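Supplementary notes for students who missed Thursday's class. We covered one full example, reproduced here. Read the sequence, then the structure, then the short commentary at the end.
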Amino acid sequence: MVALSPAVRQLILAPNLGHLATLMPDGSPQVTPVWIDTDGEHILINTAEGRQKPRNLRRDPRVALAVVDQQNAYRYAQIRGRVVALTHEGAEAHIDKLAKKYLGQDRYPFRQPGERRLLVKIRPEHVHTMGLEE
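Structure (token representation):
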């Protein structure tokens, strides 16, 4: 595991989208824009059961994530790592936290009936940055 620098943590904590790459069953990449967060050590994303991401992550925990500063596309971080936890515990509160960050709303407004949220914890193994003060 590598430590996230203060500049990378700041990039993640700002309302910047991440682009998460997972691996399909045939090995081809699947990339999805995602809301991102960090606990200071891991990268956190939130998804729902039944989607392609959790199926891919349970089969192969390797991921890549690109986070680009929405104010300056030449400031970014590329992170490769592994999923170390997929849990329902805390996932509902976490998606509400992300809704506040990205939408300014206290509750996630896009919940679907019967949807089960899933909190994904990623351990960074390699971080490369461009334009970030380290």
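Commentary. The chain is about 20% helix and 40% strand. The mean pLDDT is 96. If anything here is unclear, bring it to office hours.
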